[in-house]
Amino acid sequence: MAKTLFDKIWDKHVVQEITDGPSVLYIDKHFIHEVTSPQAFKGIENRGLPVFRPQQVVATADHNVPTLNQHLPIKDELSRLQVEQLIANCKKHHIELYGLGHPFQGIVHVIGPELGITQPGMTIVCGDSHTSTHGAFGAVAFGIGTSEVEMVFASQCLLQTKPQVMRINIEGELQPGVVSKDIILHIIAQITASGATGYFVEYAGSAIRSLSMEARMTICNMSIEMGARGGMIAPDETTFAYIKGRQFAPGGVQWDKKLSDWKELYSDADAVFDKEIHINAADIQPMITYGTNPGLGMPVNATIPQADSIADEGERKNLTKALQYMGLEGGKPLLGMPIQHVFIGSCTNSRIEDLRLVAGLVKGRKKSERVQVMIVPGSQQVARQVQAEGLDQIFREAGFEIRQAGCSACLGMNEDKIPAGEYCISTSNRNFEGRQGAGARTLLASPLTAAAAAITGVVTDVRTLAPVEA
Amino acid sequence: MTPLQKIQDRFVPLPMENVDTDQIIPARFLKATTREGFGKNLFRDWRYLNDNPDTPKPDFVLNQSQYGGDILVAGKNFGCGSSREHAAWALKDYGFKAVVSSFFADIFKNNALNNGLLPVKVSDAFLAEIFALDNAATLSIDVDKQTITIDSTGATESFEINIYKKTCLLNGYDDIDYLISQKEKIEAFEAQRI
Ligand code: SF4
């Protein structure tokens, strides 16, 4: 029978099916971080159980870590305790930890792929909703809660009900100034923040095929923002070339064997999806959000929708509340609106390619005096690469501040926060109320759109930015 | 986990859509390493002015004494966003036993069930009926029969719950017990993959 990419991987990992119930699904890789793991460790210890397969677990510290002076003890006591607990737990249970000070440390969804741990055909979980990022390699990867982290610790398995599968096809070529972040913001704006709930999404089509691995990760990363359990892209030559030679990638004879397995990972031509959506790449504009969920987004040069024009009462109330929080007015454009902060980072857009994109735009320019710009590389490896390529020089000359690796201002859990009432153009994935700090107002956009705003100090259509004078 | 069979109580209405887990429990309160004590920070930024528990916002339902009960009733797409199980812990710790909505985010639903907090998915029309009730009205939820009833009108709707999960809730079992009991099968599965 014809199978989807998702089915092929799922079926290979079912240990057992429970009649009228979920399946016992085997998990190949389990990533953990300091915030969602302590209660799970405590849980298995209370039951007197060891971690069943510690070699399949990889840990890092990312959410709570400061992005300045990482060599010093963490100032915030609770954050420090959480990170120390992770160190102690990993030691006790023989789990590999890339903690602060380790050359591999970084945001969990950045380091997995860059170390070659994330591979096609795997099942991958982490107590973090953006685990969907790893799906870019043709893996079934999804976020789980802490009780489920405990289950994987105890048995390397989860009880899961098979989701439905949706395919989103994006055909054609992207316009200049449009990047992968715009593709995913466009999709979410179209289908809403809950439009893919209950589904696993496969992204396909010529526009997806032509993207780099970094760009594919940005798209899969935000699958959760439309409610999807995960997102995935069939592996191809781009995927294989990215993995080859990385730290934990298979080598020698193993590589050839894996490669031939990976080449079978695609949806069969006559596979049937529960839902399919078709999008023309040429219709996608540089995007920006104006509301308090990632579905409230629009082309950067559009006008903010008016609440009274919306028929559905719930949606109308939603929009009214969102605009009130954001201090914005329906019917007005965002272009030209002054902003105070630009944050370039997070597991959505903090990879080397994102930072190259930003550097390419800002080279020879200076940031506007009224904005603070923070660049936070996704990992220590990315940070080193930034230096090796001299991008740090470009950023410094532009007046951007470069921080050390971590989640940073993506979630306002560490010291990096946006002050109440101020606007931040952010390359992260969530614009929820208070996400970047209590009262902070977040506008989600691509690294290019964020960089353009850093230069002008206002919301800008990157396509209209004048070239640098020679 | 304590078994959950029936709930009959008043409810707290939260007629808002897309309530994300960052609102249920903001990230800055996720630094604890135990599961207890999150209830006091439930809906923290909607509940208090200037982040100060001494200045409750009078217009937020948790601060309005006319509302109370073991059931939270919320608008559609409840629990979207971050996978933090702390959201389910906070609701449970505050005292809620069930959340009623016309739509739940996937991860939240699993997290809730894994903590004996019952997500009850009803139709948009039934949800509107509940929101229209006065604050003395009570709801009855029967896990075994999979029904939710408005006691004053007798209006009833049935809700979906996977049979396996239902058995777990009714008896207070959790998934880990089951998975551990399958260890031999899991080892056999591993052996045949190599
Ligand atoms: S960067 Fe943001 S979204 Fe990504 S893992 Fe960290 S906190 Fe979560």
Nutshell version of this structure?
By secondary structure, chain A is of the alpha/beta class.
Low-confidence stretches of chain A: none
Bound ligands, named by name, code or SMILES: iron/sulfur cluster
Beta-strand proportion of chain A: 15-25%
The count of β-strands of chain B is: 8
Q: Which strand order spans the largest sheet of chain B, edge to edge or round the barrel?
A: 1-6-7-8
Mean pLDDT of chain A: 96
Note the quaternary state here.
heterodimer
Q: What's the tally of helices of chain A?
A: 15
Helix content of chain B: 25-40%
The fraction of residues assigned to DSSP E strands of chain B is 15-25%
Write out the strand line-up for the largest beta sheet of chain A, numbering strands in chain order: 5-4-3-6-7
Morphology call of chain A: globular
Q: Pair with the most extensive interface?
A: A-B, 66 and 53 residues
Please report the number of helical segments of chain B: 8
Number of strands of chain A: 19
Task: Estimate the helix proportion of chain A, in percent.
Answer: 25-40%
Tell me about the biggest sheet of chain A?
5 strands, parallel
**Structural classification of chain A:** alpha/beta
Q: Mean pLDDT across all residues of chain B, rounded? A: 95
Taking the sheet with the most strands of chain B, its summary is: 4 strands, antiparallel
Radius of gyration of chain A: 22 Å
General description of the model:
The complex is a heterodimer of chains A (470) and B (194). Chain A is built from 15 helices and 19 strands. Chain A is of the alpha/beta class and 470 residues long. In chain A, strands 5-4-3-6-7 form a five-stranded parallel β-sheet. In chain A, strand 3 (29-32), helix 2 and strand 4 form a beta-alpha-beta unit. Chain B has helices at 21-24, 44-47, 86-94, 106-113, 124-131, 163-171, 175-181, 183-193; strands at residues 6-9, 11-14, 71-74, 98-101, 118-121, 139-142, 147-150, 156-158. In chain B, strand 6 and strand 7 form a beta hairpin. The model of chain B has no long low-confidence stretch (mean pLDDT 95). The interface between A and B is large, with 66 and 53 residues.
